[in-house]
Amino acid sequence: MKFLKKRTEDVQKDVNIIVDKILADVRTRGDDAIIEYTQKFDSKFVTLANFVVTDTEIKNAYKMVDQDFLDAIRLAKVNVKEFHEKQKRNAWMMTKEKGAILGQTLRGLESVGIYVPGGTASYPSSVIMNAIPAKVAGVENLVMVTPPLNDGTVNPHILVAADIAGVDKIYKMGGAQAIAGLAYGTEKISKVDKIVGPGNIYVAMAKKSVFGCVAIDMIAGPSEILIIADEFANQHFIAADLMSQAEHDVLASAMLITTSRDLANRVVKELEIQIKDMSRCKIIKESLEKYGVILIAQNIDEAIELANDIAPEHLEVMVRDPFNYLGDIKNAGSIFLGEYSPEPLGDYMAGPNHVLPTSGTARFFSPLSVDDFIKKSSYIYYTKEALSEVKEKVIKLSDVEGLTAHGNSIKVRFK
After folding, report:
1. One of 84, 224, 270, 314 is an active-site residue; which one?
2. How many other CB atoms are there within 10 angstroms of residue 253's CB atom?
3. Active site annotation includes 157
């Protein structure tokens, strides 16, 4: 499915020119450049004096959200934390002959920046999904950047989610300029070690450009869902789930692979019915027209083979006894088994992370996890006796590579 990878290629060249200019400007002029771009693209009311969110703003945000939201976001935090706690690893040590000791230490990154889309959009779930694994990993300084609303404030749902998730500091800035601020640091913004979180194509290309100066999670493309369904699957559920991804973006891709041509026809009819009631029906329609796909497979094994080739971000398996096929699925960001495990459950509440590889990169990338916020160091301790056992072999290898100083560092210890 090469079309998945080419969805954004046509616009990337033009975007990169703009992004590179912004990155260079922020690197040169720091905070002044960030404020200028923020006033240009987001809000003229954001200044150096108020672009850091205050405790008062966070307290006021709690007054602007309802109790049902608080209950939902707190339960989401519990579930996401419980899942990611299982990912934690332990440092280890091993002893060998002659007193040699080897091991590995693990510690959380010192500073991480989270990008959360903002403005007219509200994605508190992104805050939870990025912040909680960082906190579980032991990140010391967790900062968040998010574009302000036109009046210079930040969406209250995002602020409340950040407070509940344990974010340490929040900046009112977005776009490539926010990525630059986190990557390079300014007078007001401390440089971070890693940047995570989704954003538009300008954010994605900015993250790609600063990689190496800082670490990043992944280059996320438009969202996608693939559903594998047999003849027993419910067309109402399938249509609803396809639209749940199509509404993200006109570049989003919703795909169905089924063994039943009759089911495929019923899904098409059901889409025509359900789409009328969707608030983002225009986006859904354009997405389905451009990147919607229905494929007929001879059997479930062939459907899974196709799915492994596509390597989708989200894979729903709506077949009888879905666990029978779990071991055959090699490439998918997140797998949803059965008719009552819809993709939005994973987006908001179940616990696994919703920051996932897209555009076929699930072949070699994994969902965001605790591991993304941990650094590892190995350590070596050899006694003289242990080194003596291997010294000639180390010298031999250094000679073969022509690195005589390497061999000399061994020899001098035995003169």
Report:
1. 314
2. 30
3. no
